[in-house]
Amino acid sequence: MNDAALLEQVVLLAILKKEPDESIDDVLKMLEESRAMSLAEGREIVTRLEQEEAIVAGKLTFLGIAMANEALKAFTLED
Question: How is the chain split into domains, by residue range?
């Protein structure tokens, strides 16, 4: 898995797990503060996900939720 794919999964998971009162921009700022990625990288990923229609009107679509759930499986440790 390349860095871009990994960062996309991180963004999808962060959006999936965000609080209802948080915006996508809030999530990207938190990822930047944690040094997971730069704000520019995060916005580029969100723009790409919007073009793929995984994000519409600041929310994950069915496709986005499915992609986020796949990312969740990739990060889940198995017993």
Answer: 3-75
